[in-house]
């Protein structure tokens, strides 16, 4: 990765060009492929929420730093108390009710199951479930004497400040991706990463795939015709441009200035964003590609998306395909955008990918994605190497 400036790093931008075959990575409420009109052309789109969840899941598995996002935190605590700590079913269920009703978040009671759920989703480190179970154990006598929670006006016997304290806890994934929890004071965390909606670099058509399911008994007996089930699903294919950025200052602030932890989390996110893939329709399409090109720039001024490189949809190359024209368009726009900014702000830049050419506009070529990420992190956190 070529270092171009001694100015302090503030953002790490990651740009990805990735070819995805016949798939539906992200569906709308009608099970249709999500699209966007950009540059007067309809493109296939994958929402930022969809790819962010894929990245977060990859990150959690890779880093072993899981978090739980749910409205059913009370039921989760009840199950732990029953299955792992041997509490009687009824008492464990009551404890779960009082946990869900014990915070500053409003709650509701299901008339059929009597389960109590919070009106807003909580987002806590996975270990928070055990902490809330410990709190229930501390107040077991009070829970044994308490009544079940049956309506929103009922009060929990657990101390609200203690329950809220657990809900305020955070770990690496929350410090990185952020948390919205307005109902509990000081529980909100500003996310240090920003993720754009992915969109194809060219126009796309939505394909309808009609399918049928064969009844095996009918097939063997051959006593009637027709399928057991018929249906259709939507799919598309294309080359996507993806973009995300890490706010290094925000991440450091979330971590109380712990640069070693920030460095580890930033590296983990870059890997997760580059290699993750939304899982919708995966058993029917298996669209498990990797990026054709990844470009990472460490900047001192502001994030810089290159989505405008594709406002005019790219045309297929002479031999067909959109991958090579998309890579070329990205490199050309990167050079133009940085020139307009007076070539300021870029602390370091580099790339890795399948292109046999060597686009100097994107910085120094790395031999692999891990090498590219390592170089970017070293440029972003030079003080951590001292």
Share of helix among residues?
25-40%
Q: How is the main sheet built?
A: 11 strands, mixed
Strand content: 15-25%
Runs with pLDDT <50, length 5+? none
For the secondary structure, the number of strands is 15
- Mean pLDDT, as a whole number? 92
**Number of folding domains?**
2
Terminal Cα separation, in Å? 19 Å
Helix/strand order, N-terminal first = EEEEHEHHEEEHHHHEEEHEHHHEHEEH
Rounded radius of gyration (Å) = 25 Å
Number of helical elements: 13
Counting helices, strands and paired strands, the structural category is alpha+beta
The coarse silhouette is flat
Summarize this, please?
The protein has helices at 48-63, 73-85, 89-101, 128-138, 140-145, 160-168, 172-177, 216-221, 248-254, 259-275, 282-285, 323-340, 369-380, and strands at 2-3, 11-23, 35-38, 41-46, 67-70, 107-109, 116-118, 122-125, 193-195, 198-200, 207-213, 229-247, 293-299, 346-353, 364-365. The protein is an alpha+beta fold.
């Amino acid at each position: 990765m070529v270092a171009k400036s001694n100015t302090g790093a503030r953002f790490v931008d990651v740009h990805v060009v990735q070819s995805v075959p016949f798939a539906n990575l992200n569906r709308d409420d009608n099970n249709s492929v999500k699209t966007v009109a950009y540059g007067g052309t309809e493109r296939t789109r994958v929402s930022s929420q969809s790819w962010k969840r894929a990245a977060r899941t990859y990150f959690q598995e890779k880093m072993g730093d899981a978090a739980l996002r749910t409205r059913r935190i009370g039921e989760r605590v009840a199950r732990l108390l029953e299955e792992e700590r041997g509490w009687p079913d009824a008492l464990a269920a009551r404890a779960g009710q009082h946990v869900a009703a014990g915070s500053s978040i409003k709650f509701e009671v299901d008339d059929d199951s009597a389960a109590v759920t919070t009106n807003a989703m909580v987002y806590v480190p996975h270990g928070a479930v055990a902490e809330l179970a410990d709190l229930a154990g501390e107040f077991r006598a009070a829970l044994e004497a308490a009544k079940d929670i049956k309506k929103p006006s009922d009060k929990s016997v657990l101390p609200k400040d203690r329950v809220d304290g657990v809900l305020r806890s955070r770990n690496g994934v929350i410090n990185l991706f952020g948390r919205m929890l307005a109902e509990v004071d000081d529980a909100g965390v500003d996310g240090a990463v920003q993720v754009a909606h992915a969109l194809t670099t060219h126009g796309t058509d939505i394909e309808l795939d009609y399918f049928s399911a064969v009844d095996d008994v009918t097939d063997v007996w051959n006593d009637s015709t027709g399928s057991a089930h018929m249906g259709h699903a939507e799919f598309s294919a294309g080359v996507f441009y993806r973009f995300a950025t890490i706010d290094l200052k925000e991440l450091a602030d979330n971590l109380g200035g712990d640069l070693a932890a920030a460095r580890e989390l930033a590296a983990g996110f870059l890997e997760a964003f580059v290699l993750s893939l939304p899982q919708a329709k995966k058993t029917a399409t298996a669209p498990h590609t990797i990026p054709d090109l990844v470009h990472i720039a460490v900047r001192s001024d502001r994030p810089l998306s290159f989505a405008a490189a594709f406002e005019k949809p790219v045309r297929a190359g002479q031999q067909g395909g959109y991958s090579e024209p998309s890579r070329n368009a990205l490199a050309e726009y990167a050079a133009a955008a940085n020139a307009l900014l007076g070539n300021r702000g870029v602390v370091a830049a580099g790339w890795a990918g399948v292109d046999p050419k060597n686009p100097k506009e994107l910085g120094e070529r790395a031999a692999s994605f891990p090498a590219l990420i390592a170089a970017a992190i070293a440029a972003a956190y030079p003080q951590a190497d001292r």
